[in-house]
Specification:
Strand content: 25-35%
Distance between the termini: 66 Å
Radius of gyration: 24 Å
Largest sheet: 3 strands, antiparallel
Shape: flat
Number of strands: 5
Length: 95
């Protein structure tokens, strides 16, 4: 069974198995690898006066950006659980 989706002018074709799970082919892997290896760049320059300033340049791949997003999300979720437990336990009387 084949399912086609349109995204702008690009049409991608997804092969589905009998139980409607997505079959992965070699083209998907190369497309994903190409996307994850694309590089994002940022540059900032801050000058306070003629003698003091700051200049920074950063470069990261999409795969690295995805990894950072997963890491930050897991830290935030863990922190929220810890805060919830601390608040819940703080309301109980210990005596």
């Amino acid at each position: 069974m084949k399912h086609e989706t349109g995204s702008g002018s690009r049409i991608s074709q997804t092969n589905l198995t009998a139980d409607n799970t997505r079959a992965v082919d070699e083209n998907d892997h190369s497309t994903m690898q190409a996307f994850l290896s694309q590089t994002q760049q940022a540059e900032v320059s801050l000058t306070i006066n003629k003698d003091a300033g700051f200049r920074a340049k950063a470069q990261i791949t999409n795969g690295g950006l995805l990894s950072v997003a997963v890491l930050v999300s897991s830290i935030l979720l863990t922190t929220s659980v810890l805060v919830h437990v601390a608040i819940r336990d703080g309301k109980r009387r210990r005596w």
